Amino acid sequence: MSSIETEQRRVAIFENLVEKLGAEQARYIMDNHPPGGWEQLATKDDLKNFATKDDLKNFATKDDLKNFATKDDLKALEASTKEALTNFATKDDLKAHEASTKEALKAHEASTKEALKAHEASTKEALKALEASTKQNLDAGLKEVRAEMAQGFADITLALAEIVERVNKTEARVAGVIYTNFVNLLLFSIAVIAVVVSLVI
Description:
Layout: H1 3-21, H2 23-31, H3 44-47, H4 53-56, H5 62-65, H6 71-85, H7 91-200
Helix pairs in contact: 1-2
């Protein structure tokens, strides 16, 4: 049913009510009757899908929105970010830093090589000097050892000579004693023989 037909029907009903009940009661009834009919009114079941006051409590309020950034805040942030980005290195800055770093490394490498060569040369000289002083000390030590050994051999030779001399003297004494005893024994034997012969004769 179109809105025109609905309105025509309302007019017909109103005129019929005026004839039967009077204009005031007819107007009262029509004012309390929905224009589109009772079927056009929403029921409780229809309202179940709509949000209630409790549902609206979860929505953000003006006080909640105060914590959100505004356009001015975003503009200020953009400006500060751009200013901060100017402090960052660019590709050109990085290339320049890379070139200077390479040069510094090359210079450091060259100086390190020179220092190593100088240290190597000084080390070789120190080793040569140490070798020479060690040889001198060894030669001196060997000379002292040889001298001490020669002196020791001389002392041993002298001691052996003294021992030999003492042995010779001892041998001479022993030989003299043996000879004297032999002579005495011989004389005693002759005397015994003589006595035996005299007794026999």
